Structures are given as structure tokens and as C-alpha cells.
Amino acid sequence: MKKENPFSAEHPVPPSKFAGRNKQIKDFEMFLDDTIGGNPKNIAVLGDWGIGKTSLLWKFKHIAESSGCVGTIIQLDRSIISYPALLETIMHNLVSEAKHRRGLSSKVIDALDTVSLTIKYGGFGVGIKKEEDVTPSTIKFEEDLTKIYKQIDTPFLIMLDNIEEIFRFKGSLFSLRNVFQMLQSIKGNIRCMLIIAGKESLFKDIISVSEPVARFFWAVDLKWFEEDETKEAVLMALKDTGVVFDDDVISIIHEKSEGHPYFVQAISYVLYRNTSSDNVRMKDFTQNYKDVVNFLGFRLFKSLFESVTKTEQSILLGFLKNEKDVVSNKELKKITRMDNVNTFLKRLNEHPIPLVLKEERGRYRLFHPLFKEYLKRENL
Which residue of 45, 151, 231, 351 has the fewest C-beta atoms within 10 A of its own C-beta? Predict the structure, then answer.
């Protein structure tokens, strides 16, 4: 009987199964060494949807903790309703992580508990004023970070995933930058790192608001896997399972996924689940490929297609009526008989998961060939 499926289309890859990204890890280790040595660095992890930003943050956390540091990862979402609430979430998470550091005395733990009990950065007695409108007490936030650092006497890392969520709070990223600048150099000399993760265009978005904020971070870019990284990802997941994927199977997984980490995991998950043998061969891939596309349709593609308007759906289906992968806006206009096709292409490109990618001026493609294949199967 095979062990539990080691692939996942839902969760980040844990550090024990992490693969590839050698340059990014080397860069991080260099930045971490600088920080430990008293010259703190701050990082922005950039990449498109499903490319492994969250997995990389967990790998960073593992590396940092192996070096004696304290790290915390905060997944930003709509449940954080204000900038003060974000600062309070950061602090509660950091205190929790710090308390788990080995070798802390009961006196230090009590001191950390004292900090935790006084965490409130939204002001007091605000009456009927909306919480999202309250000016945060960043001075107290800065003081509490300083207290924690002095108690644990080791560098700490604060990592904010899905950083775009805080753009709802005007000036929040600029404010965070100011806090960490004060801590790290101007008056604190505190060894700490601020790491943010967001979409590929994050720097462009930040620069449009504040160029000094963009300059505060070192960019760590993530692209789709090269074939050797896909192979490593598959082999790392299969380690200790007793299951083998033939080399030609791994090659076609890379070909069909185009090295996109999410699709590498999803295809491998279906193959592992559907194959009873401990050796997955090309015939197994061929027999199960239809189920791979159906699985992706159920897990992702169907909901993506239904999340856009009927007109935008017509644009997406217009790509199916052209044999080329890259289609011009003029060709789409002719196919769909829409004069304002550029407006809808822009919307599709700006979707949370961009459904259309701009290759060059006036030329577009669907965001992944597997999505095109799904649309073909559903609309023939």
C-alpha cells in the first residue's frame, strides 16, 4: 500500500520537500548573514500566482531559525480590517514565536507575556470612530519590538505574505518602512528583517506611490521552474515513499506544466493518486492525462472561468478559435466582433489570477496552455 500522497495542490511545500530556487536561497543566506552581523537587509519576494512565494517564505523561516533567529509569517487577508490591527497581528505572532525559542528563562517568558498583554496600537477611547480610520500608535509598536529584541537577544524576521492586502490602508507600507528604518539604523541598531511577498508587479505598484519604499527592499524574483528544478521538486516529494516516476514522465510533467510549480504539484498529485504501481510510467501518464485536466478544471479552471463576465468569457473562448498560442487584439476583435476588446483584455490581465498575459504590444495569450486545453474540452 502506498504512503500518503506527498504532492499537494492546496498547501505550500514544506521546507523538508522544498526544491530549486538555489539563487534565491543563496541571496537570502547572504542577506541573513548581513543582518546577523549588524547590517540588516529587507527583502521583497516577487512572483506571479502559484509560483511558490509562500513556500519560499517557509524555507526562509527554517533557515533563519536554524541560525538561531526568530521568524514569523503572517498571511494577510481581508480579516485584517485596519493598519492598527495589522500591527497587533504582527506583534502577537512575533511574541508567540519568540516564546518557543529554546533556552529562554522563565523571567524572559514572563516579560514577553507582559508585552503581549499590552498590545494595542489603535488608540484608546476612540468612541464611534471607525477602527480602519484610527491613526496607529507606531511609536508603541516600535517600542514593543525593541523590548522583544532586548529580551530574546537574537535577530528576528517579520514576513508578510500577500502584501497587496495592506495597500487598502493608505500609507501603511511607507509607515512600516519608517518603523524598520528607525529600528535598524537611525536609533535602534536592532538586527531584524522585514520581508514582504507579492505579485510580480509589486515594485512597479510601490514606486508609483513611493520610490524610497521600493529602494528599502532587495528584490528576490521567482520564475517558473527550469526542467532540473521540476525534476528535483518531484524527486524530493517522492523521497521515502518507495514510488518512482520514470524520467520521461518527469519530463512530460515539466512540458505540460511549463515548469509552473502549482501545475507540477497538481499533475504529480493525480498521477500518484491514480497509479496503483510503485513505478509510474509513461503509459500511466497517458491513461490519466484526461483526469489531470478534469482535476484542474474542478480545482481551479472552472471557478476562474465563472468568475468573469459573459463578455470576458467570450474573449477567453476567442483564443480557442485561433490555432496560434499568441493572438493579436485585432484578431480577437475580428473573432469576437467586439470593438472594445482591449478594455476586456486589460481586465482579464488584471484579474487576481491573470487569465490573459500580454506577450508584447497588442499580442496576448491565455495564462497557461492547460487552461486553454480545459476550455477546449468544455466548449467543443
Answer: 351
Three-class DSSP category at 329: helix
48-103 pLDDT tens trace: 999 999 999 999 999 999 999 999 999 999 999 999 999 999 999 999 999 988 78
Non-local CB neighbours of 215 within 8 Å, separated by 6+ positions: none
Residues 136 and 330: their CA atoms lie apart, in Å, by 50
| ∠ CA 101-102-108, rounded to 5° | 70
Please, which residues bridge with residue 70 across strands?
Answer: 156
Helix, strand, coil shares of the chain as percentages rounded to 5? 55, 10, 30
Burial label for 78, CB within 10 Å (0-12, 13-18, 19+), is exposed
Torsion of the alpha carbons at 285, 286, 287 and 293, rounded to the nearest 10: 80
CA-CA-CA-CA dihedral for 188, 168, 12, 201, to nearest 10 = -90
Q: How far does CA 284 lie from the centroid of its chain? A: 32
* Closest residue by Cα to residue 228 from 17, 19, 9, 7: 19
| Chain mean position to CA 244 | 29
